Amino acid sequence: METKIDSMELVYAKPETLTDTPMHYCPGCGHGVAHKILMEVIDEMGITENTIGVAPVGCSVFAYMYMNVDMQEAAHGRASAAATGIKRVLPDKFVFSYQGDGDLAAIGTAETIHTVNRGENILMVFINNGIYGMTGGQMAPTSLAGMKTSTSPYGRDCATMGTPIKMTELIANLPGAYYVTRQSVHTPAAVRKLKKAIKASFEAQKQKKGTCFIEIVSNCPSGWKMTPLESNDWMEKNMFPYYTPGDIKVPQEMK
Amino acid sequence: MSIQHDESPKLMKGNEALAEAAIRANMQAYFGYPITPQSEILEYLTEQVPKRSKAVVLQAESEVASINMIYGAGGAGARVMTSSSSPGFSLMQEGISYIAAAEIPCLLVNVQRGGPGLGTIQPAQGDYFQATKGGGHGDYHIIVLAPNSVQEMADFVFEGFRLAEEYRMPALILADGAIGQMMEKVYLPKEGSLPFTQHDWATTGKPKSRERNFITSLHMEPDKMESVNLHLQDKYRKLRKEERYELFKVKDADIILVAFGLTARVCTKVMDLANEKGLRVGVVRPITLYPFPSDIIASLATPNRVFLTVEMNSGQMVEDVRLAVNGKSPVYFRGRMGGMIPTPEDILLEVEALAEKHNLIQV
């Protein structure tokens, strides 16, 4: 029987901004989707040649292996400082940092706050899964109250270990923050919303509006010791009440 | 490279001459944080640059942020500089290790003060080990230039950028609080006399015509990590041809003083005083502390000679002098610490005592 391939409709293609390198992420992890969406927007906006990304230390330390744009791999917590350096000498390029919760909200707290406070014209993508995944499941600054991790084996005791930090709300208070939103990647609807947020952020960057900051509440099946489905369920039931998805700061002109 | 200079001199502070030279060297970005005794560099640049150039000058939230901004901007291909003083420079060590590993050219300045800890704001040379032996984690080195005058504070900016860019590694101007703060006559290098080439490895945005560039220091496979290390070590071997030093009357000297930066100025004065007393004293001034001018010191080491190393620390460069001399001559050390500067009279007493001990008194 003759097969007519040319009559088939192309309904999906991997964005050219993703390399063919197999990702090291655990099955069910949100990083892969977040990478893909970010790259898809860059592809669709036609800004691949003008975009420079900064990878952090943490699970996404290898982001530069998967993202087919010029990239730098920064020291732990310093991605936004490196991104500041890049953006300041290449003000007309698009610059983003991609950081986890340990990187952005613990060791890099000073850099995060001051980068946003200066209103650096960059996009900061913040993956919050409440755990240190790469090092094997230790407590993160965003680990929930009572959450059991390898360094809070009896659960996070807020009296001695502090309360889970809401970094996104914190930086939204700074005048330098232009657009601040919290998203997720666990359902097709969530992915579509995230895509819109990323696109809006790059549009704002083009107009030199200030820092755009997107938190992506995500899962960590390995660190949470759950199946991917269980982890998404757990995330909705436990993470979302505390880190509720939705816009946190939207300028009037973007509404 | 021969630097072109202005025909007429200016009277300037060391820190200001360095900052002015950076503007004239077409530095594209400076990131820094205030700390005594080097804050004039940031002050001078924030005042002058907006009036004269398109360079970026940014006061960062910390030295940690500064050095990582250097990583980003340098990795994006710009000619970049930062400066600090000892405690602040310690904070930069992690970033310098990353920069050395990722092979990003940049110019660093450490106007040293006395330590350890918060120490004092007075001049010292206690960061020699940190500067020349790596300073941060892992096997790496950076180029270290030790100025002993305001003129060299300016000239070494040009030299430092040139070396950093040629070898794709950080270059450090290791000065001290006295060189930074004192005023002297200086013939400034001419603006625009330092050529700049675009780097094809920089992250400037990926055109379709090339593969993506990425700046990283991460290599998980041991064989790859070792090959990166071997490449760095090979580069450091090649760098040895850049060794620089100054010699004063060493040919006939019985006693050779070895000193860098400010103490080298003290030692040339000691040499003159000793010569007047009939003692045959010479001076070796290492200008590049890394690569250390070992060969010239080795060639001067003979059994009938005595070396005296003079530093403003507890004895750091003296270890490199001993390695170079390799037991062929006695090597002594005299130092002051905590911001104290040795006086020529102090060192002269030491020289006279050594002359007597080793029977070097000329009749």
Entry summary:
With 255 residues, chain A is α/β, with parallel strands linked by helices.
Textual characterization of the structure:
The complex is a heterodimer of chains A (255) and B (363). Chain A is an alpha/beta fold. Chain A has one domain: Rossmann fold. Chain A has helices at 31-45, 63-66, 79-89, 101-107, 109-117, 158-161, 167-172, 188-206, 221-224, 228-242, and strands spanning 51-55, 70-73, 94-100, 123-128, 131-132, 138-139, 177-184, 211-217, 246-249. In chain A, strands 2-1-3-4-8-7-9 form a 7-stranded mixed β-sheet, sandwiched between helices. In chain A, helix 1 (31-45) packs across helix 8 (188-206) and helix 4 packs across helix 5. The radius of gyration of chain A is 18 Å and the shape is globular. Chain B is an alpha/beta fold and 363 residues long. Chain B folds into 2 domains: 10-241, Thiamin diphosphate (ThDP)-binding fold, Pyr/PP domains (Rossmann fold, 3-Layer(aba) Sandwich), CATH 3.40.50.970; 245-357, 3-Layer(aba) Sandwich (Rossmann fold). In chain B, 40% of the residues lie in helices and 19% in strands. Chain B has helices at 14-24, 39-52, 63-75, 86-91, 93-102, 128-132, 150-167, 177-181, 222-239, 262-276, 294-300, 317-325, 344-357; strands at residues 10-13, 29-32, 56-59, 80-84, 106-112, 143-145, 170-176, 183-186, 214-215, 245-248, 255-258, 281-286, 288-290, 306-311, 331-335. In chain B, helix 10 links the parallel strand 11 and strand 12 (281-286). In chain B, helix 11 (294-300) packs across helix 12. The longest helix of chain B is centred in the middle third of the chain and has 18 residues, at 150-167. Strand 2 (70-73) of chain A pairs parallel with strand 9 (214-215) of chain B, so a sheet runs across the interface.
